[in-house]
Design goal:
By secondary structure, this protein is α+β, with helices and mostly antiparallel strands. Among the domains are: 75 residues, Helix Hairpins; 86 residues, Beta Barrel (Elongation Factor Tu (Ef-tu), domain 3); 72 residues, conserved putative lor/sdh protein from methanococcus maripaludis s2 fold (Beta Barrel). It has five helices and 23 strands. A hairpin with an 8-residue loop joins β12 and β13. α3 packs antiparallel against α4. The longest helix has 44 residues. It is rod-shaped, with a radius of gyration of 51 Å. 21% of the residues are buried.
């Protein structure tokens, strides 16, 4: 009886096992499918990330308008417009000096007088010689006239008459020589008065009363008596390095400062240049003129000279200022200087550029770029025309431009 009661339940158990197996198979299929889908998604992400990372990222800068002028600051030396060391032209002793250092003098004003005892004796002798030759000439003239009259009477020979005439000519020449010697000595005597050669200021007095002086500049190491300088205008000498020599033109504005007058500037005007680069220093000697009517500036002073150099494009392009670009943004290649510009589609365009002055961290650009161009900063050497790049925004405060 029990056996007959359990036998109808077997078919239901088989159906349950079938359903359970089917459910397990479905779960397995779902697991497999989801795993494959996950791997495909990860592979797609890896491919996308790899493709993105293969595009180089760059930062860009834009050319900026350069300043209308830049300053070139160099040391200079102020010198008097005229500066004359005064020496004695005659030997003797200083009788007296009448001006001291700092005195303003006029042209021809007496600075000192010299006692010249030896020269005075030479003048006295020259006068005596002159009078003696005059007396001899007068006697020769009388004799020649007398013999000429006697010749007309055939009282003397023609030879003797010619000799008397020749003697008169010789005596006349001796008078001329004696007179010239006397005038020379009298002219030297005038140099016993030491006078100022021009209007100026006495910058040095190197003698005193009773001092022995010799004639000429090279007579002795201490033969100089005075220094006189013309200071209403000063000459300013500046040595300009060769690299900047082409910038020195007459239209350049120049000003100077001196240490003893802080905060004050004085204008200067370019007068001339040496026209050649010095072999020793590699510089161009430049002479400028400085007005100094109030004697504010002193000859011999050190000065700091500032040249306002106009931009290259402004000098030659009708007032258009040159652009400036960081030196790090330029490519130095065999075909010349280039800049890598990013176009609107983020592709690289290599442009040839003309350069002006090297300003250190920046370079003047005279052609090839526009102010709105996006130029790659620090471009790699491998960058090529048409290459796709990704522009990144600059860091805060970096001054770089991005988008």
């Amino acid at each position: 009886m029990p056996t007959d009661l359990r036998s109808p339940a077997k078919p239901a158990s088989r159906r349950g096992l079938t359903i359970a197996g089917a459910a397990a198979a479905c779960v397995a299929v779902v697991v497999v499918v989801s795993g494959i889908a996950g791997r495909m998604h990860q592979s797609s992400e890896v491919r996308s990330a790899t493709s993105t990372q293969s595009i180089p990222t760059v930062s860009v800068v834009s050319p900026t308008a350069g300043a209308g002028a830049r300053k070139l600051v160099l040391p200079g030396t102020l010198q008097a417009f005229f500066n004359a060391p005064i020496y004695s032209r005659v030997p003797g002793y200083v009788h007296g000096w009448y001006v001291d250092i700092g005195a303003r003098v006029k042209s021809g004003q007496v600075l000192a007088t010299i006692d010249t005892p030896e020269l005075d004796q030479q003048i006295a002798q020259a006068k005596a010689d002159y009078f003696s030759t005059q007396a001899n000439m007068k006697l020769a003239a009388t004799t020649a006239a007398r013999w000429t009259r006697l010749l007309t009477q055939d009282a003397v020979s023609k030879q003797e008459t010619d000799e008397k005439a020749g003697d008169l000519a010789a005596k006349t020449a001796q008078v001329a020589a004696a007179k010239a010697n006397l005038e020379r000595l009298l002219t030297l005597k005038d140099f016993a008065r030491i006078v100022a050669p021009f209007d100026g200021v006495v910058t040095a007095r190197k003698t005193d009363i009773g001092a022995l002086v010799n004639a000429g500049a090279g007579a002795s190491p201490n033969s100089e008596l005075f220094d006189v300088a013309k200071t209403d205008r000063l000459r300013l000498y500046v040595r300009v390095p060769q690299v900047n020599s082409a910038d020195i033109r007459r239209d350049v504005r120049v000003s100077l400062t001196v240490p003893e007058l802080p905060g004050r500037t004085f204008p200067a005007v370019l007068d001339t240049t040496a026209g050649a680069i010095s072999d020793g220093s590699g510089t161009l000697l430049t002479e400028l003129m400085v007005a100094n009517s109030g004697d504010t500036l002193k000859p011999g002073s050190y000065a700091q000279v500032s040249f306002d150099i106009p931009s290259v494009a402004g000098a030659a392009g009708g007032g258009v200022q040159a652009l400036q670009l960081p030196s790090s943004a330029l490519l130095f290649r065999g075909q010349g200087m280039e800049a890598a510009v990013v176009d609107a589609s983020d592709h690289v365009r290599l442009k040839h550029v003309g350069t002006g002055r090297n300003l250190g961290q920046t370079m003047e650009i005279t052609s090839g770029l526009e102010p709105g161009d996006r130029v790659i900063d620090n471009p790699p050497d491998s960058i090529a025309e048409g290459q796709l790049v990704r522009v990144v925004a600059p860091a805060a405060g970096s001054g770089r431009e991005g988008r």
